[in-house]
Amino acid sequence: MANREVRAIVLAAGKGTRMKSARPKVLHELCGRPMLWYVLRALREAGVSDVLVVASPDLEKNIAALGARSVVQREQLGTGHAVRIALDAMDAGNGPILIAYGDMPLVPPEIFRDVLGGLHDSAAPSLALVTVKMPLPSNFGRVIRNGTRVERIVEARDATPAELLVDEMNAGIYAFAEPELRHAVAQIDNKNAQGEYYLTDTISGLMRAGKSVVPVVAGDHLDVVGINDRAELALARREMNARLCERHMRDGVTIVDPATTYLEPELKIGADTVIYPNTTIGRLSEVGERCTLGPGTRLSAAIVGNGCVIRESVVADSELADDVHVGPFAHLREHARLEAGVRIGNFVEVKNSRLGPGVKANHLSYIGDADVGERSNIGAGTITCNFDGVRKNKTVIGRDVRIGSNTMLIAPVEIGDEALTGAGSVVTKDVGPKARVAGNPARPLPEKVPREPR
Ligand code: UD1
Ligand code: MG
User: Fold this and answer.
1) Ligand 1: does its nearest atom lie under 6 Å from the Cβ of 79?
2) Ligand 1 atom closest to 102 (CA)
3) What are 404-407's contacts with CB under 8 Å, separation 24+?
Protein backbone atom coordinates (compact mmCIF):
# COMPACT_ATOMS: atom_id res chain seq x y z
CA MET A 1 0.00 0.00 0.00
CA ALA A 2 1.27 3.47 -0.79
CA ASN A 3 1.55 5.06 2.62
CA ARG A 4 1.85 8.59 1.37
CA GLU A 5 -1.77 9.41 2.01
CA VAL A 6 -1.84 7.67 5.40
CA ARG A 7 -2.33 10.01 8.29
CA ALA A 8 -1.54 9.16 11.89
CA ILE A 9 -2.83 10.26 15.26
CA VAL A 10 -0.60 9.70 18.28
CA LEU A 11 -2.27 9.95 21.66
CA ALA A 12 0.00 11.49 24.23
CA ALA A 13 -2.13 13.76 26.38
CA GLY A 14 -2.85 11.30 29.18
CA LYS A 15 -2.15 12.45 32.70
CA GLY A 16 0.40 9.70 33.20
CA THR A 17 -0.68 9.60 36.85
CA ARG A 18 1.16 6.35 37.45
CA MET A 19 4.52 8.02 36.68
CA LYS A 20 4.02 10.35 39.69
CA SER A 21 5.89 13.07 37.82
CA ALA A 22 5.63 16.76 37.03
CA ARG A 23 6.90 15.94 33.55
CA PRO A 24 4.47 14.71 30.85
CA LYS A 25 4.78 10.91 30.65
CA VAL A 26 5.79 10.67 26.99
CA LEU A 27 8.76 13.01 27.59
CA HIS A 28 10.37 10.60 30.05
CA GLU A 29 13.49 9.27 28.41
CA LEU A 30 14.94 5.88 27.71
CA CYS A 31 18.35 5.52 26.07
CA GLY A 32 18.65 9.28 25.72
CA ARG A 33 15.39 10.04 23.86
CA PRO A 34 11.83 10.74 25.03
CA MET A 35 9.52 7.76 24.54
CA LEU A 36 7.41 9.79 22.08
CA TRP A 37 10.50 10.34 19.89
CA TYR A 38 10.68 6.61 19.20
CA VAL A 39 7.02 6.36 18.23
CA LEU A 40 7.36 9.27 15.80
CA ARG A 41 10.52 7.78 14.31
CA ALA A 42 8.88 4.39 13.76
CA LEU A 43 5.94 6.10 12.03
CA ARG A 44 8.31 8.02 9.76
CA GLU A 45 10.18 4.81 8.95
CA ALA A 46 6.85 3.17 8.11
CA GLY A 47 6.33 5.94 5.56
CA VAL A 48 3.82 8.01 7.52
CA SER A 49 4.83 11.64 7.52
CA ASP A 50 1.58 13.39 8.41
CA VAL A 51 1.33 12.91 12.18
CA LEU A 52 -0.90 14.75 14.60
CA VAL A 53 -0.03 14.36 18.28
CA VAL A 54 -2.80 14.84 20.83
CA ALA A 55 -1.03 16.66 23.65
CA SER A 56 -1.82 18.01 27.08
CA PRO A 57 -1.29 21.79 27.43
CA ASP A 58 2.11 21.32 29.13
CA LEU A 59 3.31 18.83 26.50
CA GLU A 60 2.22 20.83 23.46
CA LYS A 61 5.19 23.21 23.37
CA ASN A 62 7.58 20.25 23.01
CA ILE A 63 5.96 18.62 19.99
CA ALA A 64 7.22 20.85 17.16
CA ALA A 65 10.82 20.11 18.21
CA LEU A 66 10.05 16.42 17.71
CA GLY A 67 8.96 17.09 14.13
CA ALA A 68 5.19 16.64 14.47
CA ARG A 69 2.07 18.77 14.68
CA SER A 70 -0.10 18.82 17.75
CA VAL A 71 -3.58 19.52 18.99
CA VAL A 72 -4.36 20.15 22.65
CA GLN A 73 -6.70 17.99 24.68
CA ARG A 74 -7.46 20.20 27.66
CA GLU A 75 -9.30 17.64 29.73
CA GLN A 76 -8.11 14.06 29.54
CA LEU A 77 -11.43 12.26 29.22
CA GLY A 78 -10.06 9.09 27.62
CA THR A 79 -8.50 7.73 24.44
CA GLY A 80 -11.79 7.94 22.51
CA HIS A 81 -12.20 11.59 23.47
CA ALA A 82 -8.60 12.28 22.42
CA VAL A 83 -9.22 10.81 18.98
CA ARG A 84 -12.36 12.87 18.60
CA ILE A 85 -10.34 16.02 19.28
CA ALA A 86 -7.75 15.00 16.71
CA LEU A 87 -10.41 14.31 14.08
CA ASP A 88 -12.00 17.69 14.71
CA ALA A 89 -8.62 19.28 13.94
CA MET A 90 -8.12 17.33 10.69
CA ASP A 91 -9.71 17.90 7.29
CA ALA A 92 -12.09 15.08 6.47
CA GLY A 93 -10.62 12.53 4.09
CA ASN A 94 -11.02 8.99 2.85
CA GLY A 95 -7.59 7.46 3.47
CA PRO A 96 -6.62 5.18 6.31
CA ILE A 97 -5.87 6.68 9.72
CA LEU A 98 -3.29 5.02 11.89
CA ILE A 99 -3.69 5.48 15.63
CA ALA A 100 -0.93 4.77 18.13
CA TYR A 101 -0.18 5.69 21.72
CA GLY A 102 2.81 7.82 22.64
CA ASP A 103 3.85 5.52 25.47
CA MET A 104 4.99 2.58 23.31
CA PRO A 105 8.59 3.30 22.36
CA LEU A 106 9.55 -0.23 21.31
CA VAL A 107 7.11 -0.51 18.41
CA PRO A 108 9.04 -1.32 15.22
CA PRO A 109 7.91 0.25 11.91
CA GLU A 110 6.90 -3.19 10.58
CA ILE A 111 3.96 -3.32 12.98
CA PHE A 112 2.59 -0.06 11.58
CA ARG A 113 3.03 -1.41 8.06
CA ASP A 114 1.37 -4.72 9.00
CA VAL A 115 -1.71 -3.13 10.54
CA LEU A 116 -2.13 -0.87 7.49
CA GLY A 117 -1.79 -3.98 5.34
CA GLY A 118 -4.46 -5.73 7.44
CA LEU A 119 -6.89 -2.88 6.81
CA HIS A 120 -6.08 -2.76 3.12
CA ASP A 121 -6.56 -6.52 2.64
CA SER A 122 -9.94 -6.77 4.34
CA ALA A 123 -13.02 -7.02 2.13
CA ALA A 124 -14.89 -4.11 3.74
CA PRO A 125 -12.14 -2.22 5.51
CA SER A 126 -13.20 -0.52 8.71
CA LEU A 127 -10.61 -1.38 11.35
CA ALA A 128 -7.46 -3.49 11.70
CA LEU A 129 -5.89 -3.65 15.14
CA VAL A 130 -2.78 -5.20 16.58
CA THR A 131 -3.22 -7.92 19.19
CA VAL A 132 -0.57 -9.84 21.06
CA LYS A 133 -0.31 -12.81 23.42
CA MET A 134 1.11 -11.73 26.73
CA PRO A 135 2.00 -13.40 30.02
CA LEU A 136 -0.57 -12.81 32.77
CA PRO A 137 -1.28 -10.83 34.88
CA SER A 138 -1.38 -7.78 32.66
CA ASN A 139 -3.02 -4.35 32.67
CA PHE A 140 -3.68 -4.45 28.94
CA GLY A 141 -7.17 -4.49 27.51
CA ARG A 142 -8.34 -8.03 26.69
CA VAL A 143 -9.37 -8.98 23.15
CA ILE A 144 -12.66 -10.83 23.43
CA ARG A 145 -13.34 -13.05 20.45
CA ASN A 146 -16.44 -14.87 19.36
CA GLY A 147 -14.99 -17.84 17.54
CA THR A 148 -12.29 -16.21 15.43
CA ARG A 149 -14.03 -12.85 15.20
CA VAL A 150 -12.94 -9.99 17.43
CA GLU A 151 -16.05 -8.87 19.23
CA ARG A 152 -14.87 -6.24 21.68
CA ILE A 153 -12.06 -5.13 23.93
CA VAL A 154 -12.55 -4.99 27.64
CA GLU A 155 -10.19 -2.93 29.79
CA ALA A 156 -8.53 -4.89 32.61
CA ARG A 157 -10.32 -2.71 35.15
CA ASP A 158 -13.73 -3.49 33.65
CA ALA A 159 -13.08 -7.18 33.03
CA THR A 160 -14.74 -10.12 34.77
CA PRO A 161 -12.45 -12.71 36.41
CA ALA A 162 -13.04 -14.99 33.40
CA GLU A 163 -12.13 -12.21 30.94
CA LEU A 164 -8.96 -11.48 32.92
CA LEU A 165 -7.77 -15.00 32.05
CA VAL A 166 -7.73 -14.10 28.34
CA ASP A 167 -4.10 -13.68 27.29
CA GLU A 168 -4.66 -11.96 23.93
CA MET A 169 -4.21 -8.24 24.46
CA ASN A 170 -5.02 -5.04 22.65
CA ALA A 171 -1.62 -3.58 21.73
CA GLY A 172 -3.11 -0.12 21.17
CA ILE A 173 -2.26 0.22 17.47
CA TYR A 174 -5.08 0.64 15.00
CA ALA A 175 -5.64 1.35 11.31
CA PHE A 176 -9.12 2.75 10.72
CA ALA A 177 -10.98 3.65 7.56
CA GLU A 178 -11.60 7.32 8.22
CA PRO A 179 -15.38 7.54 7.58
CA GLU A 180 -15.99 4.51 9.84
CA LEU A 181 -13.73 5.96 12.52
CA ARG A 182 -15.49 9.32 12.50
CA HIS A 183 -18.83 7.62 12.78
CA ALA A 184 -17.87 5.11 15.47
CA VAL A 185 -16.00 7.53 17.71
CA ALA A 186 -19.03 9.81 17.87
CA GLN A 187 -21.08 6.93 19.34
CA ILE A 188 -19.00 5.93 22.38
CA ASP A 189 -19.93 6.78 25.95
CA ASN A 190 -18.07 6.81 29.26
CA LYS A 191 -20.01 4.23 31.23
CA ASN A 192 -17.10 2.20 32.60
CA ALA A 193 -14.90 1.82 35.70
CA GLN A 194 -12.78 4.87 34.85
CA GLY A 195 -15.58 7.11 33.57
CA GLU A 196 -13.55 7.59 30.36
CA TYR A 197 -14.39 7.55 26.67
CA TYR A 198 -12.54 4.44 25.49
CA LEU A 199 -11.33 4.33 21.88
CA THR A 200 -11.63 0.56 22.18
CA ASP A 201 -15.41 0.86 22.47
CA THR A 202 -15.53 1.80 18.78
CA ILE A 203 -15.18 -1.91 18.07
CA SER A 204 -18.55 -2.97 19.42
CA GLY A 205 -20.14 -0.08 17.49
CA LEU A 206 -18.50 -1.21 14.27
CA MET A 207 -19.57 -4.81 14.92
CA ARG A 208 -23.17 -3.71 15.47
CA ALA A 209 -23.06 -1.84 12.17
CA GLY A 210 -21.98 -5.10 10.51
CA LYS A 211 -18.42 -3.96 9.79
CA SER A 212 -15.42 -6.25 9.94
CA VAL A 213 -12.60 -5.88 12.42
CA VAL A 214 -9.31 -7.46 11.40
CA PRO A 215 -6.91 -8.62 14.12
CA VAL A 216 -3.22 -8.40 13.20
CA VAL A 217 -1.31 -10.59 15.63
CA ALA A 218 2.15 -9.33 16.67
CA GLY A 219 4.78 -11.94 17.51
CA ASP A 220 6.74 -10.32 20.33
CA HIS A 221 4.83 -8.75 23.20
CA LEU A 222 7.88 -6.67 24.12
CA ASP A 223 7.41 -4.73 20.86
CA VAL A 224 4.19 -3.25 22.20
CA VAL A 225 4.88 -2.67 25.90
CA GLY A 226 3.14 0.47 27.07
CA ILE A 227 4.97 2.47 29.71
CA ASN A 228 2.71 3.55 32.54
CA ASP A 229 5.07 3.76 35.52
CA ARG A 230 8.79 4.00 36.23
CA ALA A 231 9.24 0.28 36.71
CA GLU A 232 7.90 -0.28 33.19
CA LEU A 233 10.14 2.54 31.97
CA ALA A 234 13.18 0.70 33.37
CA LEU A 235 12.12 -2.57 31.74
CA ALA A 236 11.59 -0.86 28.39
CA ARG A 237 14.97 0.86 28.67
CA ARG A 238 16.67 -2.46 29.25
CA GLU A 239 14.98 -3.97 26.22
CA MET A 240 15.71 -0.92 24.04
CA ASN A 241 19.37 -0.97 25.10
CA ALA A 242 19.63 -4.69 24.38
CA ARG A 243 18.24 -4.06 20.88
CA LEU A 244 20.67 -1.19 20.26
CA CYS A 245 23.61 -3.34 21.43
CA GLU A 246 22.48 -6.25 19.29
CA ARG A 247 22.36 -4.09 16.17
CA HIS A 248 25.94 -2.91 16.67
CA MET A 249 27.15 -6.42 17.50
CA ARG A 250 25.62 -7.68 14.24
CA ASP A 251 27.52 -4.88 12.50
CA GLY A 252 30.82 -6.15 13.88
CA VAL A 253 31.26 -4.41 17.22
CA THR A 254 32.28 -6.55 20.22
CA ILE A 255 30.29 -5.63 23.30
CA VAL A 256 31.67 -7.58 26.21
CA ASP A 257 28.64 -7.02 28.45
CA PRO A 258 25.53 -5.52 26.80
CA ALA A 259 23.83 -5.26 30.20
CA THR A 260 26.36 -2.65 31.36
CA THR A 261 26.96 -0.93 28.03
CA TYR A 262 24.60 2.00 27.64
CA LEU A 263 23.88 3.11 24.09
CA GLU A 264 21.58 5.61 22.40
CA PRO A 265 20.02 5.53 18.94
CA GLU A 266 21.83 6.97 15.92
CA LEU A 267 25.38 6.19 17.03
CA LYS A 268 28.05 5.12 14.56
CA ILE A 269 30.51 2.52 15.81
CA GLY A 270 33.04 0.94 13.47
CA ALA A 271 33.72 -2.77 13.05
CA ASP A 272 36.19 -4.51 15.35
CA THR A 273 35.77 -1.90 18.03
CA VAL A 274 35.62 -3.55 21.46
CA ILE A 275 33.49 -2.05 24.22
CA TYR A 276 34.23 -3.09 27.80
CA PRO A 277 31.67 -2.91 30.65
CA ASN A 278 30.28 0.24 32.24
CA THR A 279 30.61 2.31 29.13
CA THR A 280 28.06 4.90 28.02
CA ILE A 281 27.98 6.25 24.47
CA GLY A 282 25.53 8.97 23.63
CA ARG A 283 24.51 12.15 21.87
CA LEU A 284 25.28 11.21 18.27
CA SER A 285 28.83 10.06 19.00
CA GLU A 286 30.79 8.48 16.17
CA VAL A 287 33.48 5.91 16.84
CA GLY A 288 35.83 4.50 14.20
CA GLU A 289 37.05 0.96 13.64
CA ARG A 290 39.35 -1.09 15.88
CA CYS A 291 38.91 1.14 18.93
CA THR A 292 38.95 -0.01 22.53
CA LEU A 293 36.41 1.75 24.73
CA GLY A 294 36.14 1.24 28.46
CA PRO A 295 35.86 -0.21 30.91
CA GLY A 296 34.22 2.73 32.63
CA THR A 297 34.16 5.23 29.79
CA ARG A 298 31.60 7.87 28.84
CA LEU A 299 31.40 9.40 25.37
CA SER A 300 28.98 12.23 24.71
CA ALA A 301 28.92 13.95 21.31
CA ALA A 302 32.39 12.53 20.71
CA ILE A 303 33.95 11.92 17.30
CA VAL A 304 36.59 9.22 17.60
CA GLY A 305 38.88 8.04 14.77
CA ASN A 306 40.17 4.55 14.07
CA GLY A 307 42.36 2.57 16.45
CA CYS A 308 41.79 4.77 19.51
CA VAL A 309 41.93 3.51 23.08
CA ILE A 310 39.84 5.27 25.73
CA ARG A 311 39.88 3.71 29.18
CA GLU A 312 38.05 4.90 32.31
CA SER A 313 37.65 8.39 30.86
CA VAL A 314 35.10 10.99 29.85
CA VAL A 315 35.07 12.50 26.36
CA ALA A 316 32.40 15.14 25.74
CA ASP A 317 31.89 17.40 22.71
CA SER A 318 35.38 16.54 21.51
CA GLU A 319 37.16 15.02 18.56
CA LEU A 320 39.93 12.44 18.40
CA ALA A 321 41.84 11.58 15.21
CA ASP A 322 43.27 8.08 14.63
CA ASP A 323 45.39 6.15 17.15
CA VAL A 324 44.80 8.44 20.10
CA HIS A 325 45.17 6.90 23.57
CA VAL A 326 43.27 8.38 26.49
CA GLY A 327 43.19 7.47 30.15
CA PRO A 328 42.79 5.92 32.52
CA PHE A 329 40.99 8.78 34.29
CA ALA A 330 41.17 11.63 31.79
CA HIS A 331 38.55 14.25 30.94
CA LEU A 332 38.27 15.78 27.47
CA ARG A 333 35.55 18.35 27.02
CA GLU A 334 34.19 21.37 25.14
CA HIS A 335 35.94 21.12 21.79
CA ALA A 336 39.12 19.34 22.65
CA ARG A 337 40.69 18.25 19.38
CA LEU A 338 43.37 15.60 19.57
CA GLU A 339 45.29 14.88 16.37
CA ALA A 340 46.68 11.51 15.35
CA GLY A 341 48.77 9.59 17.85
CA VAL A 342 48.18 11.90 20.84
CA ARG A 343 48.68 10.33 24.28
CA ILE A 344 46.64 11.60 27.23
CA GLY A 345 47.36 9.91 30.54
CA ASN A 346 45.82 9.81 33.98
CA PHE A 347 44.29 12.88 35.60
CA VAL A 348 44.66 15.09 32.56
CA GLU A 349 41.87 17.49 31.62
CA VAL A 350 41.75 19.03 28.15
CA LYS A 351 39.26 21.75 27.26
CA ASN A 352 38.81 23.77 24.08
CA SER A 353 42.30 22.96 22.88
CA ARG A 354 44.01 21.47 19.85
CA LEU A 355 46.79 19.01 20.48
CA GLY A 356 48.88 18.39 17.36
CA PRO A 357 49.95 14.97 16.10
CA GLY A 358 52.01 12.95 18.57
CA VAL A 359 51.59 15.35 21.51
CA LYS A 360 51.96 13.68 24.92
CA ALA A 361 50.43 14.79 28.20
CA ASN A 362 50.77 11.71 30.31
CA HIS A 363 50.14 12.84 33.88
CA LEU A 364 48.15 15.30 36.01
CA SER A 365 47.64 18.33 33.77
CA TYR A 366 45.09 20.95 32.80
CA ILE A 367 45.23 22.08 29.20
CA GLY A 368 42.58 24.69 28.47
CA ASP A 369 42.22 27.16 25.58
CA ALA A 370 45.54 26.01 24.16
CA ASP A 371 47.08 25.06 20.86
CA VAL A 372 49.95 22.61 21.12
CA GLY A 373 52.19 21.86 18.14
CA GLU A 374 53.17 18.40 16.99
CA ARG A 375 55.33 16.10 19.11
CA SER A 376 55.48 18.49 22.06
CA ASN A 377 55.62 16.91 25.50
CA ILE A 378 53.63 18.32 28.39
CA GLY A 379 55.32 17.35 31.67
CA ALA A 380 53.47 16.07 34.73
CA GLY A 381 51.58 18.72 36.66
CA THR A 382 51.56 21.35 33.90
CA ILE A 383 48.74 23.86 34.01
CA THR A 384 47.66 26.39 31.43
CA CYS A 385 46.51 29.19 33.74
CA ASN A 386 43.89 30.37 31.26
CA PHE A 387 41.62 32.39 33.53
CA ASP A 388 42.78 35.75 34.84
CA GLY A 389 39.68 36.28 36.92
CA VAL A 390 37.88 38.11 34.11
CA ARG A 391 38.45 36.30 30.85
CA LYS A 392 39.83 33.11 29.36
CA ASN A 393 43.21 33.53 27.66
CA LYS A 394 45.02 31.43 25.13
CA THR A 395 48.24 29.44 25.40
CA VAL A 396 50.12 28.65 22.20
CA ILE A 397 52.84 26.02 22.32
CA GLY A 398 54.89 25.32 19.21
CA ARG A 399 56.15 22.01 17.87
CA ASP A 400 58.73 19.79 19.63
CA VAL A 401 58.47 21.80 22.82
CA ARG A 402 59.36 20.24 26.17
CA ILE A 403 57.28 21.65 29.01
CA GLY A 404 58.94 20.63 32.29
CA SER A 405 57.04 19.08 35.16
CA ASN A 406 54.87 21.42 37.19
CA THR A 407 55.12 24.33 34.74
CA MET A 408 52.51 27.09 35.12
CA LEU A 409 51.81 28.79 31.80
CA ILE A 410 50.21 32.14 32.63
CA ALA A 411 48.04 32.89 29.60
CA PRO A 412 48.04 34.66 27.23
CA VAL A 413 51.45 33.24 26.49
CA GLU A 414 53.34 31.71 23.58
CA ILE A 415 56.11 29.12 23.66
CA GLY A 416 58.19 28.88 20.46
CA ASP A 417 59.12 25.71 18.56
CA GLU A 418 61.69 23.44 20.26
CA ALA A 419 61.71 25.58 23.40
CA LEU A 420 62.06 24.08 26.90
CA THR A 421 60.75 25.06 30.33
CA GLY A 422 62.43 23.77 33.48
CA ALA A 423 60.56 21.89 36.20
CA GLY A 424 58.51 24.26 38.36
CA SER A 425 58.67 27.18 35.91
CA VAL A 426 56.07 29.91 36.15
CA VAL A 427 56.01 31.28 32.62
CA THR A 428 54.65 34.83 32.53
CA LYS A 429 56.15 36.01 29.23
CA ASP A 430 56.45 34.60 25.73
CA VAL A 431 59.34 32.19 25.17
CA GLY A 432 61.12 32.28 21.81
CA PRO A 433 61.92 29.30 19.57
CA LYS A 434 64.62 27.00 21.01
CA ALA A 435 64.80 29.14 24.17
CA ARG A 436 65.26 27.47 27.58
CA VAL A 437 63.62 29.09 30.58
CA ALA A 438 63.15 28.20 34.25
CA GLY A 439 62.21 29.68 37.61
CA ASN A 440 59.47 31.88 39.03
CA PRO A 441 59.00 34.00 37.05
CA ALA A 442 60.71 32.01 34.31
CA ARG A 443 63.92 33.53 32.91
CA PRO A 444 66.27 32.35 30.19
CA LEU A 445 68.80 29.75 31.35
CA PRO A 446 72.45 30.51 30.64
CA GLU A 447 73.63 29.16 27.28
CA LYS A 448 75.30 25.82 27.59
CA VAL A 449 78.99 26.45 26.78
CA PRO A 450 80.42 23.43 25.00
CA ARG A 451 83.20 22.03 27.14
CA GLU A 452 86.76 21.61 25.87
CA PRO A 453 87.64 17.97 25.69
CA ARG A 454 90.18 17.16 28.42
C1 UD1 B 1 -4.71 1.52 26.58
C2 UD1 B 1 -5.88 0.74 25.96
C3 UD1 B 1 -5.73 -0.74 26.28
C4 UD1 B 1 -4.41 -1.22 25.74
C5 UD1 B 1 -3.25 -0.38 26.27
C6 UD1 B 1 -1.98 -0.71 25.54
C7 UD1 B 1 -7.83 2.22 25.89
C8 UD1 B 1 -9.13 2.56 26.54
N9 UD1 B 1 -7.13 1.25 26.48
O10 UD1 B 1 -4.77 1.37 28.00
O11 UD1 B 1 -6.78 -1.48 25.70
O12 UD1 B 1 -4.22 -2.59 26.06
O13 UD1 B 1 -3.48 1.02 26.06
O14 UD1 B 1 -0.89 0.03 26.07
O15 UD1 B 1 -7.48 2.80 24.88
N16 UD1 B 1 -4.33 9.49 26.28
C17 UD1 B 1 -4.73 10.73 25.79
N18 UD1 B 1 -5.85 11.31 26.31
C19 UD1 B 1 -6.62 10.73 27.24
C20 UD1 B 1 -6.22 9.46 27.71
C21 UD1 B 1 -5.09 8.86 27.23
O22 UD1 B 1 -4.05 11.31 24.94
O23 UD1 B 1 -7.62 11.33 27.63
C24 UD1 B 1 -3.10 8.86 25.77
C25 UD1 B 1 -2.05 8.63 26.84
O26 UD1 B 1 -1.16 9.71 26.92
C27 UD1 B 1 -1.33 7.37 26.36
C28 UD1 B 1 -2.38 6.66 25.51
O29 UD1 B 1 -3.40 7.60 25.25
O30 UD1 B 1 -0.21 7.68 25.54
C31 UD1 B 1 -2.97 5.46 26.23
O32 UD1 B 1 -3.49 5.87 27.48
P33 UD1 B 1 -3.20 5.03 28.80
O34 UD1 B 1 -3.85 5.74 29.93
O35 UD1 B 1 -1.77 4.69 28.92
O36 UD1 B 1 -4.07 3.72 28.47
P37 UD1 B 1 -3.84 2.26 29.04
O38 UD1 B 1 -4.49 2.17 30.37
O39 UD1 B 1 -2.43 1.90 28.93
MG1 MG C 1 -0.64 2.94 28.48
Assistant:
1) yes
2) 30
3) 404/379, 404/438, 405/379, 405/380, 405/381, 406/379, 406/380, 406/381, 406/382, 407/379, 407/381, 407/382, 407/383
